[in-house]
Design goal:
By secondary structure, the protein is of the alpha+beta class. The protein is about 15% helix and about 40% strand. The strands form two sheets. Strands 1, 2, 4, 8 and 10 form a five-stranded antiparallel β-sheet that branches.
Length: about 200
């Protein structure tokens, strides 16, 4: 679709003059024309269950470090999971609200160590800074495939990411007796469309 649009703009039509290539590229960039980045699709098959009676955030999966070339190319991200939400017997029936969810955060190499540390958006914030991708469907017997929110070009995650960082996916539980399970996940990356031919 984007190829057809760019060709039409560059070549013009009987009732519309052709546009300069540079202008067309600017229009495509301004319109945030994105396509899946086939070079960056990460799939994980790693089951993990987090059970707790207090707020808990546990890293489930993490990407390889993202280099400068990758960060300059990608402009979108979406997490897809297969998981489920489980209530403990002692949880009261009226305890409504968020159950378990998946969160995406940034990790950075710890200086002088092989370990990773969370990037904190606010200097005095105690817990790791992350962005909620999506919630599990509450109290399901079977695991459910779900897709998270789309992190587009204007999302602040791209301003926080630096070369060498990696993205981590956490299973999160609020202050209730619940458990959250992740069965598998896929991270889809998107890039800006760049015409390869006119």
């Amino acid at each position: 679709m984007w190829h057809e649009l760019s060709r039409t703009l560059v070549r013009g039509a009987t009732n519309r003059p052709a546009l300069p290539t540079e202008l067309v590229l600017s229009v495509l960039a301004f319109a945030d024309c994105l396509v899946p980045d086939s070079l960056r699709v990460e799939t994980y098959y790693s089951r993990d269950t987090v059970t707790a009676s207090s707020p808990t955030r546990r890293i489930w999966l993490a990407t390889e470090p993202l280099d400068a070339a990758t960060l300059s190319r990608i402009s979108g991200l979406q997490l897809h999971t297969v998981g489920r939400d489980q209530r403990w017997p002692e949880a009261v029936e009226t305890d409504l609200g968020p159950r378990t969810w998946f969160e995406i955060s940034i990790q950075r190499p710890k200086p002088g160590s092989s370990k990773w540390e969370h990037v904190h958006r606010l200097p005095k914030r105690e817990e790791p800074y992350g962005w909620i991708s999506h919630y599990n469907v509450a109290e399901q017997q079977q695991s459910q495939p779900l897709s998270g929110q789309f992190f587009g070009p204007d999302h602040e995650i791209w301003r926080e990411l630096h070369p060498g960082d990696r993205l981590a996916v956490a299973i999160c539980i609020p202050q209730r007796p619940w458990s959250g399970t992740g069965m598998s996940a896929r991270l889809d990356f998107w890039r800006r469309f760049e015409p390869s031919y006119w």
